[in-house]
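Why does residue order matter? Because the sequence determines the fold. Keep that principle in mind as you read this record.
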Amino acid sequence: MASFSSSCFLLFTAILVVISWQAVASDPSPLQDFCVADNSSHVLVNGFVCKNPKVVTAEDFFLAAKLDMPRDTKMSKVGSNVTLINVMKIPGLNTLGISLARIDYAPLGENPPHTHPRATEILTVLEGTLYVGFVTSNTDNKFFSKVLNKGDVFVFPQGLIHFQFNPNPYKPAVAIAALSSENPGAITIANAVFGSKPMISDDVLAKAFQVEKKTVDWLQAQFWADNHN
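Structure:
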């Protein structure tokens, strides 16, 4: 009986640990109606300090983002423009665990391989066609891809490398993405690896990519621009 009780206790403890881990593995849940971010506060917390609710106004939940207007993609080397609406743009998003982005793609433009360390993404094509995909983690590195047309929806799991590409050489494309964090973050793979400051040693990258150091040096000499606004 003692052995059975001990086993039950261990099982209960394991379940509690799993539940507790899941509870803290995403953005903090709100403990009140809202927690509008106080961007003027110098207090450092995981997220943003709440503004006094007595001084909160409707403007804290509003942004005249003009997401119905096309964005300029001509200045982007990769032919895309990401307009992200997160907690830095709308303070009322703080602790609510959601944000969105409009993504404009030039003909043959792409939103290059990147990850969102803090969010799952669900993308809807508004205009045009997109070739999209993501890669699973080591060791499988399985590639999932799909061609999306207007009205189609695709999900990119949190933290996995993914991309979108407009295969049409003549027409632009537009998509809207919802993300499961008020501050999802973005790590563009090429920018992070070859455009880091200071630079990663070319010895390290040459070994990692199995190429000559001069190839790494050439890549590091490029201007790695950000397509996020």
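The first strand starts at residue 80 and ends at 85.
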